[in-house]
Amino acid sequence: MQNPPDLRPDLARARVSETRHEGQPTIGMVSLGCPKALVDSERILTRLRAEGYGISPDYAGADAVIVNTCGFLDSAKAESLDAIGEALAENGRVIVTGCLGAEPDYITGAHPKVLAVTGPHQYEQVLDAVHTAVPPAPDPFIDLLPASGVSLTPRHYSYLKISEGCNHKCRFCIIPDMRGRLASRPAHAILREAEKLVDNGVKELLVISQDTSAYGVDIRHAEDRGHRAHITDLARDLGSLGAWVRLHYIYPYPHVRELIPLMADGLVLPYLDVPFQHAHPDTLKRMARPAHAEKTLDRIAEWRGICPDITLRSTFIVGYPGETEAEFQTLLDWLDEAQLDRVGCFQYENVEGARSNALPDHVAPELKQERWDRFMEKAQAISEAKLAAKVGRVMEAIVDDIDADGIATCRTKSDAPEIDGNLFIDDGTEGLAVGDIVTVEVDEAGEYDLWGRRV
């Protein structure tokens, strides 16, 4: 399932409502890329707010604009250049950061008028560039207060980044080149941030990193202040805070099994986002992936045996160099057997610097499209059948939005924001507020969404 443009989490813009006082310097933000980049944007804005800067929701009200870029795919690079160009045209004073910032010549070659270029998670360099372009002018009676975090997501859920970088060397990916090797945050620091978020009203914590199940490996699962840097321990600690805890980007290592009882016990949501990418062993070998499809099916069966209500989400690549019809058919057959609940699919494309570019036997664009269509047809049929089986069930849902007609857009525990489906309540929503967790009986199902009524 590919998201329509207006629902993509990589097109977030700062939506911060605050009153600007006279003389206060103001910064705008355009944040592209994955939720990990969104967290970087929030940290930058939080630091700037603490220094007395105002945050502008539009170009016109900003003294300068920061564009946090994505450089994962060539199409993402083009989108980032377009966003920089738009910011230059609308505002004229632009600072570039993020993954594409690792290639400053690429950016300045297209947009020589940008004020500065910094790489991913280079917070201090971004702040230095802002100070140079727009010197701070804090009002000591108004600004420089202890900073509450600036959030680019609705206040009832928040992304919680637990590490940077990645130790894998997948041939199609350049993330390790841009963001470096795995660098885990101390567990006590993550818990402190999570506690503050929950205290401020966050009802759902979305745990993200490039390789969440490898969390703590680089620091030898160090224990500090009573908290051990291991994904199982961290999940248990986070689950004690009383919020929904959703785990993203979990590689299917054997120790992931230890997380499933926590889901069965209700400590963390019964939801795993696992980037399988493919199922044929030869394709996985060409990808240099760490997983094996036959073992993965065994693990999926084991996970479901421990926690029958578990929701499994994954993404796949079709048309990878060398992918034969037989390899693609193996992927379809694997999907039939795996019966994943939520599935996304991408057509392979070259990325400058990726080792997969040099592989032989690239797949023709029209064949990639044809395979994508066949894959999504099967994935949609599986999704439709799984959702139809939920009709009549009673479940909890979190309210994301209530429109002018009183229709509530919600998500069940099986749905991550932006990337999965929704549950809609179109009657009896009086008194509901965004962020409420309600009990709903499902009375209708579609291909990706549910409809229900409060009970």
From TrEMBL:
A GO term, aspect molecular function:
metal ion binding
Query: Quick one: where's region Disordered?
Result: 1-24
What cellular component GO annotations does this protein have? cytosol; ribosome
Which SUPFAM superfamilies does the entry link to?
Answer: Radical SAM enzymes
MTTase N-terminal domain: residues covered: 25-135
Name assigned to this protein: Ribosomal protein uS12 methylthiotransferase RimO
Lineage runs:
Bacteria, Pseudomonadati, Pseudomonadota, Alphaproteobacteria, Rhodobacterales
What Gene3D superfamilies does UniProt report for this protein, alphabetically? Methylthiotransferase, N-terminal domain, Nucleic acid-binding proteins, tm_1862 like domain
Q: Which residues form the Radical SAM core domain?
A: 152-385
> What does the entry list as the binding residues for [4Fe-4S] cluster 1?
C34, C70, C99
Q: Which reaction does it catalyse?
A: L-aspartate(89)-[ribosomal protein uS12]-hydrogen + (sulfur carrier)-SH + AH2 + 2 S-adenosyl-L-methionine = 3-methylsulfanyl-L-aspartate(89)-[ribosomal protein uS12]-hydrogen + (sulfur carrier)-H + 5'-deoxyadenosine + L-methionine + A + S-adenosyl-L-homocysteine + 2 H(+)
